[in-house]
Amino acid sequence: MMNKEELHRFISNSTGNESNICQIYAIKDGEAVYDDCWRGYKTEDAVNINSVTKGVMALLAGIALDRGSIKSVDQKVMDFFPEYTVKRGEKTIYDVTIKHLLTMTAPYKYRSEPWTKVCTSDDWTLSVLDFLGGRKGITGEFKYATLGIQILAGVIENATGEKCIDLANKCLFEPLGLPERINHGDSSKEDQFDFFMNKKPRKYEWYSDPQDTVTAGWGLCMSALDMAVIGSLVLNGGQYGGKRIISEEYLKDMLTPYLKLGEKFGYMNYGYLWYKPFDDREVYAAIGDSGNIIYINKEQDVSVGITGTFKPRIFDRVEFIEKKVLPVLSD
Fold this sequence. Notes:
The protein is α+β, with helices and mostly antiparallel strands. It has helices at about 5-10, 50-65, 100, 115-120, 125-130, 150-160, 165-175, 190-195, 225-235, 250-255, 320-325; strands spanning about 20-30, 30-35, 45-50, 180-185, 205, 220, 240, 245, 260, 270, 275, 285, 295, 300-310.
């Protein structure tokens, strides 16, 4: 078993999966117990956390539900887009619910995600809606859709009358004592490429489309500290610092396993955009590419945030956290 100094050296010298780690931050029993940085990063620096963004979107959906802006996860998605013109012959779209979006069981009319078409459009949410539905109907099959979850941002904004970023700042980041995020602003193909690939720290920002709607599937920039704090909120049933931020009832629903995933996703279980890695343990995670992760372990009352710069084919750091990070927390 390593101590903290040995773990620091191990990550510093890694040429493998750990070679892109920027920050690790851990909170145990309500106290910060670990804070370390690599590759020129400081504790307060932010990174594009990729698909961990989806886990934050699940919390915003819960906040909209708690406020009554959304009545139920079983509400139809099309209830929130009355102005949208559905394509001729398309029927399935009318059956898609918010729960289908949250559990990645919504059907889409594409083989691979239409990045270019969506990310060069004026309104990414409406552009993705054009792909929702299809002839097969709703099969309940898991279809991981980074662009599809953009529709959830539209649902939340149309339900609450607020931009997602304003809702997140006011009802999530500020009550948690985290810095407010700003919209990333102007976007081009080159800029999007840089946003993913650039290994330097980013501002506290969130990628956004030309309508100033945030990207719901990626593009939120956070530090490992930010992520560990959000993990603590989930760990504590929606309370933080004595304040109720999100209902315990919604978080229970969010962490309930609705699907058992296949080999590509490590046979993990899936809730509302959060993973449950083990069938028989109270461990949950919001997971993004390049090893970005919010990891929470209810058995040990610990929340861990890890950030990493762009590095392909690193998906899940659950095993790394359990084997290497958790043992040093009592060091």
